[in-house]
Design goal:
By secondary structure, the chain is mainly alpha-helical. It has three helices and no strands. It has one domain. Helix 1 packs parallel to helix 2, helix 1 crosses helix 3 and helix 2 packs across helix 3. The chain is flat and about 45 Å long. The two termini are about 15 Å apart.
């Protein structure tokens, strides 16, 4: 497996990293450590799984980030709430996260088999 990183991918990674750091620093100065940790948790649980899922489609980085935020704000809480009716909410949040990451992984495998 040969790793190919071009200039555009490096720039996307740099811009994304700076954006994440800026958001965490902003929330740290406005709301303190709890605000920064909340912003980090929202990024990890709401945005990240859908960002991986949307990464399999032909979208630009900014489109994937925006769509993953808004989709994650609706779908992740809905699945966690539905599971929370039957089991504890802490466990349902963890299971929802695992389900969405697994969906991204299997979507990637299916796409590789088709290609």
């Amino acid at each position: 497996m040969k790793l190919q990183i071009d200039r555009e991918n490096i720039e996307n990674i740099q811009v994304g990293s700076l954006l994440i750091i800026a958001v965490i620093v902003f929330f740290y100065f406005i709301l303190g450590l709890q605000g920064a940790l909340s912003a980090l948790g929202i990024m990890v649980f709401f945005v990240l799984p859908f960002y991986f899922l949307l990464g399999k489609f032909n979208l630009r980085e900014d489109e994937k980030l925006a769509f993953s935020f808004f989709i994650g704000a609706g779908i992740f809480p809905a699945i966690a709430y539905w599971l929370g009716i039957f089991i504890s909410f802490r466990l349902s949040i963890f299971i929802t996260f695992i389900i969405l990451i697994a969906a991204a992984y299997f979507l990637n495998r299916i796409k590789k088999k088709i290609s």
